[in-house]
Amino acid sequence: MNDRVPCGNYEALITYVYDECGPGEREQIAAHVAQCAACTEEIHALQDTRAHLGAWSPPALPLGFQITRTESQQPATVLRPAGWWRRPLPAWAQAAAAAVIFAAGMGVNVVRTSGEAPTAVAQTATPSPVVAARSNSVGEVGVSRTEFARLEARLRSIENENADVQRASFMPRTSGVVDDQELFERLTAFVDARIALSESRQRSVLAGLGSTVDEVTQRVDLATQRLEAMEEEFPRQQQALRTLGSRLAVRTSFQPASVGR
Amino acid sequence: MRSDEELVTRSRSGDTDSFNQLITRWERPIYALAYRVIGREEDARDVCQETFLRAYRSLAGFKGEAKFSSWLYRIALNLCRDWIRRQRRAPVSQFPEDIDILEAAAAAEPSESIEDLVARRELSAVVEEAMALLPEEQRTAIILKEYHGMTFQEIADLQGCPLSTVKTRLYQGLSVLRRHLERQGHQSVVQMVKRT
Question: Which end of chain A, N or C, is less packed with Cβ atoms under 10 Å?
Answer without folding.
Answer: C
